[in-house]
Write a structure and sequence with these properties.
31% strand; 6-stranded mixed sheet; 14 strands; 24% helix; globular; alpha/beta
Length: 210
């Protein structure tokens, strides 16, 4: 199986939106459709792929802005962590009421549980519940490609903010140390904002995790 991905930086604060695709069957999974649905649809078309699912790492407005539009256009169901229901549904908690252009309330089609393993587009994905940035945050690990999509949980030499509703610094650090840093050190980490990193680098250099 040949797995690859593309990404675009979208929205007013520059969120990484990833298109994970299977080159063998031309099917794809979208991770964090931040905003600008037209640009997302262009990315899908450029790879000549059929979108089979949309995965949300968490419910903040800057990661979900185009989710409903892309889902309607492609018929791809939306997946999110089961503990993130309140964040997705409540515009005050997902920050869209005060920071977005319009209030967003979203209900996922499929709710994911911690350590659930799903197969989408012929790609096996492990769903890792990583609360702390939000209470229902999910990181997605693709062992076959040696990659992790961490959303706003883990950044290059940094971690996500915990001062928003449902955030917790202690939970975030615990999530990273107990669930992400145990992955193989050569795992590449693709984050919700900014540059990519690796588990090995974060174990050695992340000042928040020492």
């Amino acid at each position: 199986m040949s797995i690859d991905f593309d990404y675009k930086i979208l929205g007013e604060i520059g969120t990484n939106c990833y298109l994970l695709y299977n080159k063998d069957n031309k099917k794809a999974v979208l991770i964090d459709p931040a905003d600008e649905a037209d640009k997302i649809m262009e990315m899908i078309a450029a790879k000549n792929c059929t979108l089979t699912a949309i995965l949300l790492t968490h419910g903040h407005y800057d990661h979900i802005g185009a989710a409903v539009k892309v889902s309607k256009a492609t018929k791809a169901p939306i997946y999110a962590g089961e503990c993130e229901k309140e964040v997705l549904e409540n515009p005050s908690i997902n920050l869209s009421a005060m920071m977005g252009e319009h209030a967003i309330s979203l209900i996922a089609d499929k709710w994911l549980t911690d350590e659930e393993v799903i197969e989408l587009a012929g790609i096996t994905i492990r769903c890792i519940h990583t609360p702390g940035h939000t209470k229902g945050g999910m990181s997605y690990y693709v062992e076959d490609a040696n990659i992790l999509f961490s959303g706003d949980t883990l950044f290059a030499a940094s971690i996500g903010r915990t001062d928003f509703p449902t955030g917790s610094m202690s939970e975030l650090v615990r999530s990273i140390k107990s669930k992400l840093l145990i992955l193989p050190e050569n795992t590449k980490v693709f984050t919700g904002h900014g540059e990519s990193t690796s588990i090995a680098y974060e174990k050695q250099y992340n000042p928040f995790l020492s």
